Amino acid sequence: MNISVNQERLSAELDTLATFSDAPAPAVTRVLWTARDLEARAYFQILCSEAGLSVRQDALGNIFARFEGTEPHLPAVATGSHTDAIPHSGRFDGCVGVLGGLEALRALKSAGFVPRRSLELIMFTSEEPTRFGLGCLGSRTMAGVLSPEKLRGLKDGDGIAFETARSAGGCSGELETVRLPEGCYHAFVELHIEQGPLLEKAGLPLGVVAAIAAPATLRLTIEGEGGHAGARLMPGRRDALLAGSELALAVEKAALSTGAIDTVGTTGFFQIHPGAVNSIPSRAQIEIDVRDIELERRDEVVGQIRAAWDEISERRGVSGALETLNADPPATCAESIVSASQNAAKALDLPFQKMVSRAYHDALFMARLCPTGMIFIPSKGGISHRPDEYSSPEEIKRGVEVLALSLAELAA
Ligand code: HGY
Ligand code: MN
Ligand code: MN
């Protein structure tokens, strides 16, 4: 099938989407249910309606845009990603899969393709953990991994309750209706930027993902003792920042201790109180991200971090419970999806490599619902979660073409 992707239109739409941001260009900040996020959601829904797709939103704000097939009662073939963006990040992470997914459906429509199974484009709520500390809220709930009770118990960094934020975000309806039954979809394919250097290093335009790494997030509030930086002498201090700093170094040490290149550990969030130069830090809030493509190794690293915290807190006389926010298993991509993507790449005469995704994605949870796979396009310099994140219009166009042909094969 000959499809033509409208690269100019897609680039213009990605440029417009990037303007809905709480950070000055080229950075993008777009956090769940902020005004910018709502603008992006509204913009996406307009584009889908203009493309003749039927659009609906569930109680958690997941948006579904449907290209009806000739047999609409059959489980649909889905694609999609996210448009929320962590603070001061880039304009392609997630957005390529949402607007590129839309462009794939438009290209199939204009090629006169009529799917037997309906095609459904999904914009997932809060793939990033920024607001509530937990990533993939939409897909995690759709897959039944996150319960409505757990959702209702969440509070953001300003103490705003989840339900308050949800209704302010224009969502209504019971959270119990978000969960989808297994087999609700025939297949799910997500187009995403690689966010790493491998495709660029290999000089390849395409990656077909075989597995998605296992992420875990830990959170800790360290309670020490504050005091005057001058008058409080060193012996017996209970400095929360220093305890947290030792823990952050222990995270790095634990990740390196496995000797496996696939083990990563990051202390990405570290806030101290009161934050005055002449006041001893009495409290520190820390969030730790640990991943590996092997579950046992990941959990071994988490165990080492817990043991390190027990020793540090005891020795320094500080307290705090190390809470696990999520510890998800890795996902293996379904052979049917991997082969559909490979067939598409071959039909387009595009070389590719099979690879692992070290970033997590909504596909990690859609894999609990149906056969799932991912298509990667290169990231310039392997950079992501930074304002200089970049994929060229040509690379995006090729990813959309492969996605469109993959969807066509799966929906036929
Ligand atoms: O952190 C991740 O892997 C994703 O970008 N949320
Ligand atoms: Mn991201
Ligand atoms: Mn992403």
State the CATH superfamily name of the largest domain.
Answer: Zn peptidases
Order of helices and strands: HEHEEEEHEHHHEHEEEHEEEHEEHEHEH
Bound molecules: (2S)-amino(hydroxy)ethanoic acid, manganese (II) ion
CATH topology type of the largest domain: Aminopeptidase
Beta content comes to 15-25%
Mean pLDDT: 97
Rg over alpha carbons:
22 Å
Helical fraction equals 25-40%
What report would you give on this structure?
This protein is α+β, with helices and mostly antiparallel strands and 412 residues long. The chain has two domains: 7-213 and 330-411, Zn peptidases (Aminopeptidase, 3-Layer(aba) Sandwich), CATH 3.40.630; 215-327, Alpha-Beta Plaits, CATH 3.30.70. Helices cover 35% and strands 23% of the residues. It contains twelve helices and 17 strands. Strands 2, 3, 4, 6, 7, 8, 15, 16 and 17 form a nine-stranded mixed beta sheet that branches. The protein has a four-stranded antiparallel beta sheet with strand order 11-13-9-14. The chain starts with 6 loop residues before the first helix and ends with a helix. It binds (2S)-amino(hydroxy)ethanoic acid and manganese (II) ion (2 copies). Residues 82, 93-94, 127, 192, 361 line the site of one manganese (II) ion (MN).
